Amino acid sequence: MITTAKRLDTVEEYYFSSKLREVRQLMSEGKSIINMGIGSPDLSPSKAVIEAVAAAIQDENGHGYQSYQGLPEMRQAMADFYRDQFGVEVNPNNEILPLMGSKEGIMHISLAFLNEGDHVLIPNPGYPTYTSVTNLVGAVPVYYDLKEENGWEPDFEALEKLDFSKVKIMWLGYPHMPTGARGSLALFEKLVAFAKKHNILLINDNPYSFVLNDNPMSLLQVEGAKEVALELNSLSKTFNMAGWRVGMVLGNPEVIDAVLKVKSNMDSGMFYGIQKGAIAALKCDKSWFEDQNKIYRRRRELTEKLAEKLNCKVYKEGVGLFVWAKLPEGIESAEKFIDEILYEKHIFITPGTIFGSNGEGYIRFSLCVKEEKVQEAIDRF
């Protein structure tokens, strides 16, 4: 038998990949499962996006290999989006690299900058892919705590006690996943100063800025941020295009060029029609965000009622696509708690533990569930 690479010993199958098999098995047995686990938008992209893709498919020049850097007009649309929404100026020629979803950007950046044995600062709780990619490239995860008593923001006094001799990258993501903590420009300013002091590449993963958030922010709004920072963004949540796989990374030309060296060896460009659809999405006006948030606001109100029905305490300050809630006193295991609900009430909720040890005692609800289904979940109790 051919043995697998040792790097596979450092990771497990992604939680949702394995757990959703369990959910599908229950569905095949006739159970009516309400899936409140994953953040895959159930709403559709705008009509303009669909029309742009439909027209592009008829273009006889649209079916060949595309540029590794994407269409110039798509990079320009991304630059315009950052200027209009965040007040951030980026050069579309050399400070933006389109990605097939921001998740691949995590791997590309890690391959571009991490050597075996380098250390990576990772938020706890945080997106599990930061850890798995760090392990796959042979680097070492070093977790920094985010706790509710600190508003799910880093404790800089604790951070300064770390050994920075091998630290190369620091991951963060505000609005924060899974808690929904907003962050602030003041926090971003402290993080940029921290990264400059310790010569760290700081990366903000920013796909949730426009969901239930009245003050979208970018790390690149901080003066001098481009000297030490990158920002990842995505059309997945903002424009209901999760399966289309369109993202971007923004930063200074030297760093972007390093990421391009990796990316250009791993794919052959994004499909022309998808790029045309992305351009149309990025040109959506303010009413698009307002209409989406009306839907998510109603869903959040109902989901909070469901959480309270479970005697959980909701983190009310959260924004984004999820509701983060603290389990009742005396509950020792988030995973056991959600499994009981899955098998007894046929509702799938995410345990906070998959995001790190500081997620124990919490659960996360997705807002990618229609109102009538959330109400049905409430009624099951």
UniProtKB/TrEMBL annotation:
Domain Aminotransferase class I/classII large: 32-381
Alphabetized InterPro entries for the sequence: Aminotransferase_I/II_large, LL-DAP_aminotransferase, NHTrfase_class1_PyrdxlP-BS, PyrdxlP-dep_Trfase, PyrdxlP-dep_Trfase_major, PyrdxlP-dep_Trfase_small
EC id: 2.6.1.-
CDD domains: AAT_like
Gene Ontology terms, MF aspect: transaminase activity
Cofactors demanded by this protein: pyridoxal 5'-phosphate
Root EC class: transferase
Keywords: Aminotransferase, Transferase
The UniProt record lists the keyword RNA-binding: no
Annotated PROSITE patterns: AA_TRANSFER_CLASS_1
UniProt similarity note: Belongs to the class-I pyridoxal-phosphate-dependent aminotransferase family.
The protein's name: Aminotransferase
Source organism of this protein record: Flavobacterium chungangensis
Phylogenetic placement of the source organism: Bacteria, Pseudomonadati, Bacteroidota, Flavobacteriia, Flavobacteriales
